[in-house]
Structure formats: structure tokens, C-alpha cells
Amino acid sequence: MAHRVASRMQQLGTETAFEVLVRARALEAEGRDVVHLEIGEPDFDTPGHIVRAAQEALEGGWTHYGPSLGQQDLRAAIAQEVARTRGIAVDPAQVVVTPGAKPIMFYTIMALAEPGDEVIYPNPGFPIYESMISFVGATPVPLPLREQNAFRFDPEEFRALLSDRTRLVILNSPANPTGGVLGAADLAAVAEVARERDLVVLSDEIYGRILYEGEFASVAALDGMAERTVILDGFSKTYAMTGWRLGYGIYPRWLLPHVDRLIVNSVSCTAAFAQRGALAALTGSQEPVAQMVAEFRRRRDFVVDGLNRIPGISCLRPRGAFYVFPNVSRLGMSSKALADLLLQEAGVATLSGTAFGSYGEGYLRLSYANSLENLGKALERIAGAVERLPA
Ligand code: PLP
Predict the structure, then answer these.
(1) Angle at Cα 311 formed by Cα 302 and Cα 150, nearest 5°?
(2) Closest Cα to atom 7, ligand 1: which residue?
(3) What pLDDT is recorded for position 343?
(4) Any bridge partners for residue 120, and if so which?
(5) Beta-sheet strands, E only, within the chain
(6) Domain 7-45+287-387 has what CATH class?
(7) For ligand 1, what atom is nearest to the CA of residue 242?
(8) What Cα–Cα distance (Å) separates residue 113 from each residue in 54, 105, 120, 267?
(9) Whole-number pLDDT of residue 15
(10) Model pTM score
(11) Is the CB of 205 under 6 A from ligand 1?
(12) Which among 31, 186, 255, 310 has the fewest CB atoms less than 10 Å away?
């Protein structure tokens, strides 16, 4: 029997990191040793006080359904945190807690974009943006992020992409996959246009605390932007809680009832005991975050210096997140072929830059959320594989 699925499923993309992880695990099952630089998650364990808070919550009966938008005290703590870190006023009623931050993308794009609408999104960028824009039938309009501009967009190029059909602009800073950070002038350009044209901005700020230089800045803090910005953030990266599935959005009031219905129709609410852990994360010591970021900085420098010593590879020093995006175009093969070769022949799992969109050709993405020892091993293996390439 031919099994038919809805035609919209053809529009849905995926996240290659999970596919490469499966291939890497298959090689490991055959006895091969693989260094994992493909998946975007901190290698640290969730800090103990957060784990204990969730354990106590489970034993204390936090095992039932809760409010769809999140527990009240957690929403209040998130509002306070976002207000403090962005310098804006946030009402706890604007906070929406979700299982991971990804649903915030899903709900925002679903609630705002439809066939005929255009959505501007960063390319290379997190693959789910383009996937979701296509899924809802809207038109994805890539905003190129180029190495010569430290992977920030060019404000002139951004303006040239606008049309009467532009509905939503997606920003991500610090960025996956490049580690690039947008500057004040970039944010101002987006805010100016958003005000003029009555656009909404989805600002993915999930790496906001993983920043090595300067202060974090959100487009939401600019004049008139609070009522047209959705801030996406969460616990996965900052508190090493990827498997807990805990994220949040800060929504303008007019969008809240729509997001609420999307939640009720999909997940109902976020796990109750996990939210108690999230509260402990925000109200407890921030020392583990500081230590993790300091360690990431050491690894960043180690990896960038190591990559720049390999003939044919050059790598910028990213200002945020835990990825590097080295230029491998001089090696004379496609990014995908190189990533495949490094996995198969050298036992290093990386992602092709094209996993993040067409503007990623010529680059690889390496996550340095791995020990210095493993990073050293990966650099040696990459150098060896590059040396063996036919001239
Ligand atoms: N946004 C960006 C830019 C990311 O890189 C990720 C995860 O890799 C997410 C959002 C999703 O985070 P979560 O695991 O909380 O859903």
C-alpha cells in the first residue's frame, strides 16, 4: 500500500546535527573512535543545585499538569532576569515557558507568517528558521552573513531585501553557527525598518550569556521595539540543561492569546518538576555559568589558534556562543564532502556549513563544547587528513 502524507511535509527541513550524531554513533558501534564536534550542547553536567531542586520537586508531588504558559513564580523570575539583562520592562504575563526554546520559533512563525508573506532570516543560520518558514507556506528570504563582515549582516543588503510582503525578521546574536555578534548599528537598522514597516522581530538570544567581549544588547531595548519583538531564550545552553527541554519567549501582549492556544493544542504545558529546576537555576548561584563561559573561552582560543595553524584553513575568533566556523574553501572540495571525509577517514564529526543554509558553503561548523584533550585530538586528526588530501 502506498502511504500518503500531507504535501506540507515536503516543506519541512531538519537539523543535520542530529543526523551526523547518528552516523558518528554507528561508526562508534563498529569500534571506531570519534571526536564529537557536531552537536550544539554544553558538555558540562547541569549544576547540582538545579538537579536537586527538580528531584525534590518530583518527590514533593510536582507531577501534574500546570498552567499552559508556565508556573507563575518561574514566569516572574524570568521576567526579572530578562529585564535585568536587556534593560527593558517585562511583565511576568508576557513570559511563555516551553519545552525547550525551539517551540518559541515554531509558535511565532506559525502565528505570524502565511502564504504570501516573506520572512527574512540569517543565512548561515539555525536551520529550523528556514524549515519552519517554508512549512507554514511563507517565503524564506535569506539574509547573508559574510565572513568579511565578521558574520554580521550588511545593513544595506538587509534594506534591499525588504518588500511590501515582509512580515517577520529573525535575528540571532550571538549566533549559531558562526559565533558572530551583531553590533549596535545592526540592531538600530533593524529597529528603524521594523518601526517604519510595522514588522515583528523574532530575536533568538539563546546564547546571550555566552559572550566573551562586550555587553549583551537586545533589539527589544530600542525605541518602540518592545511591542514588536519576540525574545527567544532558555535554559539549554546557559545552564547546561539541553535534555531538560526548557525554554521561554517574551511576547508582546497582542500575541499572547494566540501562542497560548498553540501551546494548549500541542504540548499543554512544560514539565512541572523541570520548571522547579529552572527556578533554582535563575535564583541560585550564577558561578557555574561564569565558570563554564571561562572554560569555553579557553577552548575557543585553543581551537581558533589550532585551526589557523593548518594550511588551507582560516578561522575568525568568534565573540560568542560555542562554535567556530572556519573557512575551508581553499582545500578544494565542497564543505559537505570535507565533513564526510573528516568523519569517515579521520574520526572527527563536524557539520558542513551548508547544514545552515547556502551561504555556509566553504565553511565547517565545529562545536568546541568538548574537553581540551578531545579538541587537541580533533585538531591533530584534521591536520593529518588535510595533509593527506591530493594536492
Ligand atoms: N536557537 C538556536 C540559535 C540554537 O542553536 C538552539 C539549539 O541548538 C536553539 C535555539 C534551541 O534550543 P533548545 O534546545 O532550548 O530548544
Answers:
(1) 60
(2) 40
(3) 97
(4) 141, 169
(5) 35-36, 95-98, 118-123, 139-144, 166-172, 200-204, 229-234, 247-250, 323-324, 348-349, 351-352, 364-367
(6) alpha beta
(7) 14
(8) 37, 12, 11, 21
(9) 82
(10) 0.97
(11) no
(12) 31
Mean per-residue pLDDT over the chain, rounded: 96
Model confidence pLDDT, tens digit, residues 322-377: 999 999 999 999 999 999 999 999 999 999 999 999 999 999 999 999 999 999 99
Q: Does the beta carbon of 320 sit less than 6 angstroms from any atom of ligand 1?
A: no
Q: Name residue 291's amino acid.
A: Q
Architecture of the domain whose range is 49-283:
3-Layer(aba) Sandwich (3.40)
- E strand or H helix that includes residue 272: helix 272-283
Instruction: Indicate the SS3 state at residue 15.
Output: coil
Task: Tell me the CA–centroid distance for residue 102 and ligand 1, in Å.
Answer: 6
Q: How far is the CA of 101 from the centre of ligand 1 (A)?
A: 6
42-95: pLDDT as tens digits: 899 999 999 999 999 999 999 999 999 999 999 999 999 999 999 999 999 999
Q: Strand, helix or coil at 365?
A: strand
Which amino acid, residue 223?
D
Ligand 1 within 6 A of CB of 126 = yes
